[in-house]
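ERR on first pass: missing label on line 2. Operator R.T. fixed the label and resubmitted. Corrected input:
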Amino acid sequence: MIKQLKTLAVVAVATLTANIYAADKPNAEEGKKLYEANNCGSCHALDKKVVGPALRGVNNRRSEEWLIKWIRNNEAFRKSGDADANKLYEEYGKAAMNVFENLTPDQVRHILEYIKTAPAPVKAKGPTENVDGASKNDDGSNLYILLTLIGIFIVVLFILSKVRNTLRRLAAERSGEILDSKGGAIRGLLPEKLSNMNPTVLTVFIFFIVLIVGSTWGYKFGITEVGVQKGYAPKQPIAYSHKLHAGELKIDCKYCHIGVEVSKSATIPSLNICMNCHKGVQKASTAEGDGISPEIAKIYKALDYSPDSANYTKAFGPNAKPIRWVRIHNLPDHAYFNHSQHVKVGKLACQTCHGPIEKMEVVQQWSSLQMGWCIDCHRTAGIDAANNNYYAALHEKAAKDLKDNKNRSKYFTPDGSVKITPAMNGGLECAKCHY
Amino acid sequence: MKLLMKKVLYISSLLIAVGIMATGCVSRGNNTGWEYAPDMAYSKGYEPYNQGDSNVINPYGMSMREPVSGTVAIGKNNHYPFDNSGDGYEQAKGYEMPADMEDKENRGQYLFNIYCTPCHGEKGLNDGEIFKRGLGKPAWANFQDKYIREIPVGQIYHTLTYGKGNMGSHAYALNPADRWKVIKYVKQLSGAGVETKTTKDSAEVKSAKR
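pass 2 clean. output:
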């Protein structure tokens, strides 16, 4: 009974004419609540065009009656033949506003009152203006200046000591003294026993020590560092944070890297993917001020997109230009790698090779990408043969072998366990990767 | 005194030489480090992500080019006939799902969990991490809303293809068949009763995630 009464009341409120409620003063606070509850803010902002027009001053642009009709059911209103309504619809690329018939005229008045009285934004000052490369000076150039200075200092020191020696020798010659020729540069550094040795023997001795130490170090350097770019973390043209997007926002890797399951490359996302969110998200939710984040502004600049004249059917301007991201993982040309094979077939998580990407503010190469690293995994990683439609015949045979206790040595992995590995599927054959 | 000075001189120059070596040829930060045989490492042929201006013909030195307009990719020949406009959205009301659209492997759910959950949440409650921060929520509450239950599938297809409001186009990742599978799952979430076979759930879906 009470429920019915309530329904009745709601119907009554909805159908009562505006005159009665005009007496009730529109309440901005109530309006704000309604504005938020109905997510008006997802398509409108007070001071700029988003999906729909900027709302400030709408009370002056249109009559209240017009606005109530438009907001509650713009579709019916347009069909009733209102010229202004249809013009507005055309102007916004015929992107219709949602229908809000659940709002009573009175509630719409509350919202309008909120729009009328909402405080103007405080202009953000300072850093948001700076769009083009705010920090250019942190690329280690200070280190080079320091090294150069030290170098100059040493050369000066060296020359001065030479000059000093020459002067002393000249002075000694003039006075008829003979200088002790012992105690050359290297000898000075050695203990007395060594420095008294035969110079030839000493030279050979030192030469061999240097040779052994140097070649050991050089060998280690050669196999672990040359051509191995583990730890390479270049500065990208946009300071995109995987920590924020993949970590905190939990966006799946495949949302942006769409090729990872179907092609060789995981693909570097094109900017339209950024714009799926960043048409609406123009600054970090934690950032202060009202401006556009400088990093997001770089996306807009590259797309020649103007956030002030947003138009959802045409996002990009005529001077759009791709962003030149810096490639991090650079497998040499003579080795073949395919992402889909590992992600779709092998069901590997991205983090297996790329490390904790979701925690990286700046992405760095996590794995060495050396051949030994590939081979290790191919020898030890188990294949989920039961739930794998690929290599079905091979897996069937392997399962049978294991069951019948045949060819067991083939399935032994270096760690001693018995399982089906990529190596068994031909994962160690040279021509699988080098051709 | 002289000896001491010389010692300092030699040790410091040695340290600096080692320092320069250590910073100059090891890959850290912006530095790729030393490389052997770069002409073996870098492809002369055009690879998708060749770095630099290796290609003198294409704009911006890129290997990839946009396809000629009007190109139809393999598997995408079921062309969507309507414009990206309000009129197109109206016309999409009558656009029907192909009768033979089957989703045997729960692919709709799998794709939904990648491409929809960041905003709409796993159960379609509009509680994804991006919406949680109050950014760009739609006017309807969640996928159980009357709006989603009653919206024609053609219009969801239009929205996935072109985007609507704050939502961008997802045609970049979802081919037509995938779009229909996602729509099936969306309708299933809304409780509108599109029949979808429940198959072995999610062990596979979860392990393949990320």
